[in-house]
Amino acid sequence: EECKMVGAAAKAQVATNPKNTVYDAKRIIGRSFADEVVKEECKSFPFEVVEGRHGEPKIRVEWRGERKELSPEEISAMVLGELRVAAERHLGRKVRRAVITVPAHFNNQQRQATKDAGRIAGLDVKRIINEPTAAALSYGLHDKKRSAGTGGEGKAD
Predict the structure, then answer these.
(1) Which of 41, 119, 137, 153 is the most buried if burial means most Cβ atoms within 10 Å?
(2) For the chain, how are helix, strand and coil distributed in percent, rounded to 5?
(3) For position 62, which CATH number holds?
């Protein structure tokens, strides 16, 4: 494949190019290649995951006729970079700082690896928060917006 695809474009080519279509990198980010979770996850991936020099998982892909080994952080950085570009388009200005969500079960290594992915994507990661916390905060913000125009008594949707 000649170009890097992220999101819907990548998903559309998974059937025709499964060995070079990487997904669910979040499942192995911040883990050791020897980790049982990584071994189990690798069984379901159509792409190849190999052990890096320092015992970390690396995802092997073919890029412009060359074999590359990418870390889960690099894969996540590509996704975060696309999200940054979409946010910049939507806001009409540069996005530098971010708060990134992770599953509540992530350990400190996985959180740090996610923060590293943000840095690779060119973001200043201010916080890493749990996904359920982000959902609750979002609900609270939207709830405030709904009740703001009604004199504070709330409005049924």
Answers:
(1) 41
(2) 45, 20, 35
(3) 3.30.30.30
Please report whether residue 132 resides in a domain: yes
Host domain of residue 41: 8-72
pLDDT digits (tens, 9 = 90+) for 107-124: 999 999 999 999 999 999
- 95: tokens are 């996005």
pTM of the model: 0.82
65 φ/ψ sector (left φ>0, alpha ψ -120 to 50, else beta): left
Q: Could you tell me if 64 and 103 lie in one domain?
A: no
**Residue 130: left (phi > 0), alpha (psi -120 to 50), or beta?**
beta
Residue 68 structure tokens: 């590359």
The encoded tokens of residue 142 equal 């939207």
Measured in degrees and rounded to the nearest 5, phi and psi for residue 60 equal: -90, 125
